[in-house]
Amino acid sequence: MSSTDDVKQLRDATGISVMQCKNALEEAGGDIDKALLILKKKGSAIAEKKSGRDLNAGTVASYIHSTKEIASMVLLQSETDFVSKNEEFMGLAYDIAMHVAATNPEYIRREDIDEAKMNDIKGLFEKEVADKPENLRDKILSGKVDAYLKNIVLLEQDFIKDPEKKIKDLLDGAAQKFGERVEVGRFTRFSVR
């Protein structure tokens, strides 16, 4: 059975509704760490379920680094103005803009990379795995490609403020919290150098 303090602690950590936190704690047998994992898993499922919905609202956030040499802008989209005008939603957009300024991703999602570019990326590592055992080559190549893509694909990057979470996890959590589909529509980064 979950105590009120545990529910409050989980809610403070996630921002997710009291009822969802209570249910996750009950499912986890009172273990807060397990409850966090359950909420994360459910967040991904909720985001997937909402993936077909139209994004008719959003907010644009910008970040300018203190040196004034790097800046970025991000369009974070939602289904309704009700969500896009929410302070937490706008804060998420700002955090993602800061992340883009710091990490300089090239693509939002892996699916945005065209086939020719993906073949070029695979070609970078094929020579490195040529001397590996044949039964392991594909797996090693896949791992190297995944590690490379993590550097250039926004959704696969570890969030700079919390490396335990990926940018995709932040969006899934927002979809769970707000009950709407949330996606990065576009981003751009500016740099003096």
Write the layout of secondary structure elements.
Layout: H1 4-14, H2 18-27, H3 32-49, E1 57-64, E2 70-78, H4 81-84, H5 87-103, H6 115-129, H7 134-152, E3 158-159, E4 162-166, H8 167-178, E5 183-191
Antiparallel strand pairs: 1-2, 2-5, 3-4
Helix pairs in contact: 1-2, 2-3, 3-8, 6-7
Description:
The chain is globular. A three-stranded antiparallel sheet has the order 1-2-5. A two-stranded antiparallel sheet has the order 3-4. The protein has 193 residues and is of the alpha+beta class. The longest helix has 19 residues. It folds into three domains: 46 residues, Helicase, Ruva Protein, domain 3; 91 residues, Elongation factor Ts, dimerisation domain (Tetrahydropterin Synthase, Chain A, 2-Layer Sandwich), CATH 3.30.479.20; 38 residues, no CATH class. It is 55% helix and 17% strand. It is built from eight helices and five strands; from the N terminus they run αααββααααββαβ. The model has no long low-confidence stretch (mean pLDDT 88). The termini are far apart.
